[in-house]
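Example record

The entry below shows one chain as it appears in the dataset: sequence first, then structure tokens.
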Amino acid sequence: MKMTLRISATALFILTSAFCCYAQQPTDTSGAGLKVHDIQEISITGVRSLKGMGHLNDVVDGIIYAGKKTEVLLLDSIDANTAQSNPRQLLGRLPGAVFSETEGSGFPSNGIGFRGVNPVQSIETNTRQNGYNISSDLFGYNESYFLPPLEAVDRIEVIRGAASLQFGPQFGGAINYIIKQAPADKVFEFNTEQTGGSYGFFNSFNSIGGTYKGFSYYSYFDFSTAQGWRPNSDYRQFNGFARLQYKFNDNVTLGVEYTAMQNRIHMAGGLDDAQFDADPRASYRARNWISTPWNIVAVTLDDKITDRTTFTWKNAYTHSARNLVWRNEDGGPGTLDTINPATNQYDPREVEREQFDNITSEARLSTRYNLGSTSNTFAGGVRFYYAHLGRQEAGIGTTGSDFNFSVDTFGTELNFVTINVAPFFENVFHVTPKFSITPGFRFEYIRSTVSGFTNDYGGPTIPASGTRNRYLPLAGLGLQYSTTGTTQLYANISQAYRPMDYDAITPLGSTSIIDPHLKDAYGFNSDIGYRGTVRSYLMFDVNAFFMLYNNTIGLINIDSTTTERTNVGNSIHTGAETYIEFFPVRLLTTSDKYGQFSFYNSFSYVHAKYNEGEFKGNFVENAPQFIERFGATYAIKSFSATFNFSYTSSCFTDAANTVYSPDDATVGKIPSYLVMDISATYKFLKRFNIKAGINNLANRNYFTLRTDEYPGPGIIPSIGRSFYVGIGARF
């Protein structure tokens, strides 16, 4: 299999280079919109694309992307299972994307990671909606419990490691979900999508939107429920969103947005290796529940001060929570949750509650100016961030099995406060009309405080207090050369940083302990690549990367049942990423008489190893070396169908590279897996559509996650074969 993948990558690079020799288009470096000749499918300001995926122009909405590796997924042009947010069918087009699929245990918030960083709940990635933060706590607890329903998303913007200057210091880059806009030519429009599927799945998405004079509005309501592929993995979730914008004139727009989520999630628990091999659908936990109510209020201001200068101001307040009741996982997944003969009842469950309140205010100013005969762009701004996290743990809950967070007292009560001020700037200097240099700088001030006490299950009460200030200068440099009007060479290097988060310093359950000498992680990301489009039949992006990640935080085995979270060493991540989307019919003819056929290939090679420390020479956790994804689409008139193939090679889950541990399922290998999906769409009578598909066509048993916390601990199986069908309408 490895040889096949290497040949695929090499052939892809040769094919891409050969086709690019034929592209002779006039140069356009303005970044003002789509300027690609012979391309009619996509017309979104700031995006270059043929159909499914593209990249951002040099400057979009006052943010500089010149010299950076960026990707844009255009959801309306992709056949995919958006109702269930299947990550393989959408985000799988991103080369090297690794997913932690947790829906098999009832936890539908799948995570994503790139280039060997931790994918669990997107902990290493700056996750945004419409440009503002939506995660629980940027620095202390950067987990993503909320993601917008993909039926409401217009496009997904991804910026790799070089995002650290514009969006924050994370190693994993940034991912931004852009919600659909109100129709500009209608006072009222109603859209509905009703989808049903296997294992009791049902999703109802409904939206309204319109524009009247200077006002525009867009709102959606989404309800999703499922009985689950495994017993005890049922869930119910409501999502809502409302946006009201007022355009004072052609230059100034004020907007207010509100996002809400309510859910009740039953978690089936993790499995050990023997249990997974015997029956991956089995569940030995019936009493584990989680709820993550989410509320976000945002106020945005966009001001086109002059034809050359723009100002944007995004403010967001998040008031959210994570409530967990579960059986305390002494002994791990192999220890059964049974009736205690001494009491004739189950043992009491543990209750944990976390309250997130954070405020983000981010102002940006962008201006174009002439220096000699070239046009240049300056973009700068400042982010202010305040976050309070109240954590209550070791609460003795009920002996029941129901969705019940009742508790008298908590053994641990902690308050974490983070204050962050971060000014930043970048400048695109055009040395020539084709060649640009973009230096940038960001300064992070982070103040973290903790207060409260810990007392786990009758132990001694230990007061907790402390303050830590961090002063972090981050620098970067980007280069870009336009080889033709639609192809570019790009390169960049940017420093990155990850402070210890609160999860890393507070153990969950009793199967993991924390190193008291844990340190922050730091390093840098770099890319060099070649991308572009060739007329209307080829889109490509081929790049190599190098990432230095010092003080990597990971797991090591202390004994047969206990792991420790600690700094396991410094690591170097190198590799290559390639994406190609090809329309062979367009190469031969402009006629659509027999329909259009297209395919994409998304490939990555990641070599991530520890180069210093106790585990020097070992592979980094959650870093599969090869990821190969292929998709083929046939479209004729109002019908289209897509086949997706996804292969991910094996990886380790601890720094010691444990292959198998009979006593601890939180460590060990994640075997390689190959998954296939089919999806199709038919549109009729101009306003109706039918969507259907099969996920995991071959019904492969596989998993993407071993965890020492919920929704486990242990192995979290991914979902087997499932079907879905939906009908939608627009009025």
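Notes for this example: The first strand starts at residue 47 and ends at 49. The CA atoms of residues 546 and 574 lie 5 Å apart.
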